[in-house]
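Issue: ligand-bound run for flavin-adenine dinucleotide - logging full I/O for the record.

Environment: standard queue, default settings, no custom constraints.

Inputs:
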Amino acid sequence: MYSFDMESPSTVADAAKALGQDEAQALGGGQTLIPTLKQRLASPSVLVSLAGIAEMKGVCTADDGSLAIGGGTTHATVAAEAGAYAALAALAGNIGDPAVRNRGTIGGSLANNDPSACYPSAALGSGATIVTNKREIAADDYFQGMFATALDEGEIITEVRFPVPEKASYMKFEQPASRFALVGVFVAKYADGVRVAVTGASEEGVYRWSEAEAALSANFSADAVPAAPSGDGMISDLHASGDYRAHLVGVMTKRAVAAAS
Amino acid sequence: MPKDQGIGASTKRREDVRFLTGAGNYTDDINVHGQAYVHFLRSDVAHGTINGINTSAAEGMPGVVRIFTGADFEGVGGLPCGWQVTDKNGEPMQEPAHPVLAQGKVRHVGDPIAAVVADSLEEARNAAEAIELDITELDPVVDMKAAVAGGAKVHDDLSSNLCYDWQFGSETEAVEKAFAEAAHVTTLELVNQRMVANPMEPRVAVGDYSRANDESTLYTTSQNPHVIRLLMGAFVLGIPEHKLRVVAPDVGGGFGTKIFHYAEEAFCTFAAKACNRAVKWTASRSEAFMSDAHGRDHVTTIKLALDKDNNFTAVHTDTYANMGAYLSTFAPSVPTWLHGTLMAGNYKTPNVQVNVKAVFTTTVPVDAYRGAGRPEATFQLERVIDKAARELGLDPIALRRQNFVTQFPYATPVAVEYDTGDYHATMDKMEELIDVKGFAARRAESEKRGKLRGLGINCFIEACGIAPSNLVGQLGARAGLYDAATVRVNATGSISVMVGAHSHGQGHETAFPQVVAEMLGIDENMIDIVHGDSSKIPFGMGTYGSRSIAVCGSAMVRATEKIINKAKKIASHLLEASEADIELKDGQFSVAGTDKSVAWGDVTLAAYVPHNYPLEDIEPGLEETAFYDPANFTYPAGAYACEVEVDPDTGAVDLVAFVSADDFGNVINPMIVEGQVHGGIAQGIGQALLENCAYDENGQLLSASYMDYAMPRADDLPNMANYRVDHSCQTPCTHNPLGVKGCGEAGAIGSPPTVINAIVDALQSGGHKVDHIDMPATPQRVWEAMNG
Ligand SMILES: Cc1cc2nc3c(=O)[nH]c(=O)nc-3n(C[C@H](O)[C@H](O)[C@H](O)COP(=O)(O)OP(=O)(O)OC[C@H]3O[C@@H](n4cnc5c(N)ncnc54)[C@H](O)[C@@H]3O)c2cc1C
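Outputs:
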């Protein structure tokens, strides 16, 4: 780690101001950022902790019926309190280990947009709205490739709003070492159609599998899931080839449909 | 009634109180007043020529005490290799220099180039970033077969990348004849992948130096502090034993990787004197991945010949064994004497020949890892037997039984003599535990759920209790492998036993006192062991090769026998009886056939307060030392089985049951033995299903953290009801006083082929013509095997 200063504001406004400083960076649960700092792969001069901002925490149902989760809410809290959206609560409850879940936050996960992370598939698969201190961003516009998002420098995710589907499920095939998603598929059935978001697989990061969405919107059953996509453009690494990942996209989608409730 | 004390009692591990309440004293807990910290600048390329190292900017950085490079070690010895293997032409192996800091070239990612000593670790790291390196990259040497075929050389002064070409066992002519006459030959090519041992505690070294008496002290995470004192003092730094103390306090796991003498240990000891200040190094986990000696990494072709009646007639192997960039302390012995000598397995095969080419590559050195050589032997042999059974349509259990050694002692064609064993007994026990008869019904039930179920079985034998010194001397060991113990009885009867074995998870602090308590008939809690400090214990070769209780425990028994002899003399004086009539029972010395007796504490007190004492015949005091050199190895053996369910859609393997039936001879503490086997099997399952230390073609380490290196976790193992370890089959060792064989490695040796045999069985049941799957059997590998 290099040395840095630390600020702990208690409001979003103060945090935004603090993040205006040179080489300032937001600190959520630190479950991604702290290891990066320890390896000296990042060297912010100021860390602005979001952990003390009460208005960014908690889970509630918004007026339009969607589930609103504060950007600073931990995975453990979502797992415990997002019962209104069971698939989402289950996803949060299976991220990392208890230590990770008690520290890591939804805002941090979405800001980081790791290509193997779980939350991006839920946000994209639910057509969620990412609310920041400046604006509201539709999930379809938010994810822009591996580790890339629509966020501007210093922009803070304050809330994420999830429309609650009729049925949904997340199926994660774990990478054996990290237990991130080797492939994760989030399927959500809404009155106006089915969304299928895939994480862990594509070199472009989380994406919507539109063929499956079309087929499942017409017939929401595991048998309707189309043949697995091609392995081209899929991540190929020590743990799995692109072809194997592509195969798993098909299998996990079927299983998610079968399990959706 | 199970005993609650002494040999055979499951006494709870007394050391766990300290470990579980945060009161352990690990090397990183040791801080010497005024210590400085070292950070090693390590190579990030696999192979390169060092043209220059510019430290001038770094030297001016805040907190820097001194920066060392290879040039500072030119007059210093290199890290020695403790075993010289002679190749098949009678030539000694090629033995490259192994400098403490790289000289001229870097040879693997992680090779230390420079060391910055500074007031704080932060400052040392900052300064290391300011060192300017001028390195010309050379072609990496990663693939073993390519490495011996030609191309770049890892060591320019050696004739090639071949360390040795070794051949062992039966004469070539006899082996060839057996294959020519065979009714059936089964051939298998397999890989025993590279592993990282990953003890929970990373390595740490603290060097200290006293100008007052010119004495150096090294605190280090070692399994064998005396071995480190010997190697580092005599071969690297030229410090005589009486000026060098090596302390290995609580050590959080070793698994072999903390046997070896490492550059960081020599560096900290050297730098402490050079800087006149203690120097501390604590490995980060990332450093551990690229500087702890790795394990295994063999590529093998094995052939098995059978006659028309399915008797094994010959085994022939051809192995490439990776040494990495340098020879780690015991590296050459692992693919040879710890591997070739076990190639007969549990079977009376008359012809066995083992061929091993050891190869230098630009990777981290490879050395002993739990099991060391024996898992490699077992994996090859048991996989090829399973394949043969399948090819011939035979029951794999029956085929093994038919070929078992049943007469003991049995001299194998590969130099060792099994003293005792009963392989049918462990096989019977295994069949009972796994319920072989009920397997068909369980398979049918799995199939209903769309899963392929497989049953894998396996036998193994290992050579433990390492080792008879005269024998290993002939085989190239540059040290003896006896052990030592001093039993110090105090005036009030309490006892400290100074033992050469080192406990880093094995529970010696509990088990060793059980033996002495049994012999003397006193409370275990009156006895402590002292270990891990060369200034406190007489001598010791340390703990590895499942040798602690078999070798050091035997030394302790011998020393305790001497204590009993002397105590009887004292008792006979106190009781005014003939020494021959004195009996020791339950801590009382009595005169046979009378009610006259004197207690243990009275005798020990007399030894230290010798007012009424036979001073003309014996010395006061009660302290005895014994060295014990074993007459033979010990040969634990067993039969293992497991059941897996394979998900045909994904290739994922679920290990649903695992059982082991081991013969460890006599058992001192059943609970500790079971814990050792549980842990060993977990490590073997890790190798079979998860762990993989992988390099890319550039020699970059791909699995360099826990994000990519998969360790087994609790939920990768069967639940406890289906994870059963048994050691009720006991044929006591015939040549050591306790009749013990050692249990530390069995689990890691016996389990990998069990799992792979089960997966192949599962896939075959699904109609997939799969002969073999290399480890780790990841879902992708299994899925690809099923889908061609
Ligand atoms: C052992 C382990 C296992 C894990 N397993 C999984 C897994 O299975 N699935 C999974 O999805 N993830 C997993 N993770 C990642 C975990 O979910 C992280 O918590 C998450 O990715 C980052 O969240 P954080 O709050 O810790 O963010 P931090 O690490 O604090 O920050 C990450 C990045 O986001 C920025 N940031 C943080 N909060 C905000 C905000 N509110 N607005 C804008 N920017 C912000 C930071 O500046 C930084 O760039 C794992 C992590 C670990 C250590």
